[in-house]
């Protein structure tokens, strides 16, 4: 079967990969000149990578790890010491380590919490552990049911005091979804905790050894191309064309450099776009279908990625850090954590600014100034004086992953739709790994599986001609 896919983020790419594995022919179209979507990156004038987001991989990403294995590029993940590391704004410059011992789960995570005396008292630790008990016993079903509560409401119900929230959960909430605990659904951090408590290496963190477009997306493109598929950048889906019965007749595509529009016809069609981009393209003929109406309840959350190239080496660790500060979420010194960005003499901090609602409209210089002020608070004795910054980069994403407020789980769509030849993909579609790279890869795989099931039910198109050139009206 020929399958037209719009969107070359990780979901669209994974979908294409698993379609060629199943013997189908994917034709993927990406609007941008770079693949990767939220993991995209571009080189600046000096040849340094400017990324859309700082990306960390977890041991609890089975589908991503399997994909890397299948592409023979597992060695591109640089695994770090098994620990979660937090800044302590109340003790500037001192990091708090939750070292996870190499023993079976959940004992390893429980021991790491019990052994850490920087952030929680014994009473808080015990209350925290008791609060997590239903999630441990009842698993994902319980975790899903907690979607009706915000994280703060759930903590109150469990009798877990505010200190645990400010110490652990603000960091988790901001890192996982770019919003604060009063806004985030309890399902989000509980899902992560549940994975970490069940898998021995679930909370182990890795960084890619270079930029995602080259080191992660390109191998998928090569794999797909070698097996009869195709991947085209600077090709934007302009309109979903319908048959009289509401099924898809074709994708009306447009180039990004003023080329004439053309129609792509295929046996099946996939939109692997962000939910916001898809809503703009939803055909009029589908507006009455509740399946598509539910998407109005989902929208992307703003986030900002900041990179600061210093002229000197900062005292640093080769790991991801959870800042626990108001402005920042997670950050890392990429000159340490990532092989391609390695520099023994100069640090490059990459930081995620979240929640970003109040900052997304501000100037880059305001954002850099605020970030530097926050860093000075976190490391008063460590930042060189005067601070020597070579250059900075700010990438704003006004609508990134879906905003995971309470009640959103009910509106996340399946990859199959009521339209027999049309499918969705993307980390916002229903899968248990939330708005993550793992979620995107799994959604792509589920979409490919749904299409494979659909293919056994319909005869293939008679013509092998997919791209029927047709000037637009
Ligand atoms: C700052 C930041 C940090 C993050 N950190 C992490 C992390 O540490 N760990 C983690 O697991 N996840 C992280 N994520 C989340 C992760 O990046 C996403 O969940 C995942 O990449 C989403 O992939 P996707 O394919 O579903 O969507 P997207 O990446 O949004 O892909 C959609 C694609 O569709 C394309 N498109 C849009 N409109 C059209 C059109 N009309 N025609 C053709 N193409 C179109 C877009 O250009 C894009 O390439 C982070 C995200 C951000 C923004």
CATH architecture of the largest domain: 3-Layer(bba) Sandwich
Q: What is the fourth-level CATH superfamily of the largest domain?
A: FAD/NAD(P)-binding domain
In terms of DSSP E residues, the strand content is 15-25%
How would you write the strand order of the largest sheet? 8-7-16-17-18-15-19
Q: Give the count of structural domains.
A: 3
Number of DSSP E strands:
21
What are the distinct ligands in this entry?
flavin-adenine dinucleotide
Q: Enumerate how many helices there are, as a single number.
A: 13
- Structural class assignment: alpha+beta
Q: How would you explain this protein's 3D organization?
A:
The protein is α+β, with helices and mostly antiparallel strands and 473 residues long. The chain has 3 domains: 190 residues, FAD/NAD(P)-binding domain; 103 residues; 95 residues, Alpha-Beta Complex (Polyamine Oxidase, Chain A, domain 2), CATH 3.90.660.50. Helix content is 32%, strand content 21%. The protein has 13 helices and 21 strands. A 7-stranded mixed beta sheet has the order 8-7-16-17-18-15-19. Helix 1 links the parallel strand 1 and strand 2. Helix 1 packs parallel to helix 13 and helix 5 packs antiparallel against helix 6. It is globular, with a radius of gyration of 23 Å. 46% of the residues are buried. The C terminus is likely disordered.
List strands and helices in order, with pairings.
Layout: E1 2-6, H1 10-21, E2 25-29, E3 41-43, E4 49-51, E5 57-58, H2 62-70, E6 77-79, E7 83-87, E8 95-99, H3 107-115, H4 122-145, H5 151-157, H6 162-177, H7 187-198, E9 205-208, H8 212-226, E10 230-232, E11 235-242, E12 248-255, E13 262-264, E14 268-271, H9 275-281, H10 290-293, E15 303-310, E16 321-322, E17 328-333, H11 334-337, E18 348-353, H12 364-378, E19 389-397, E20 422-424, H13 437-455, E21 467-468
Parallel strand pairs: 1-2, 1-14, 2-10, 7-16, 14-20
Antiparallel strand pairs: 3-4, 5-9, 6-9, 7-8, 11-12, 12-13, 13-21, 15-18, 15-19, 16-17, 17-18
The structure holds flavin-adenine dinucleotide.
Residues 6-12, 29-32, 37-39, 52-56, 236-237, 272-274, 277, 303, 305, 352, 397, 400-401, 426-427, 435-440 line the site of flavin-adenine dinucleotide.
Keywords: Carotenoid biosynthesis, Cell membrane, Membrane, Oxidoreductase
Domain Amine oxidase: 10-451
Membrane topology: Peripheral membrane protein
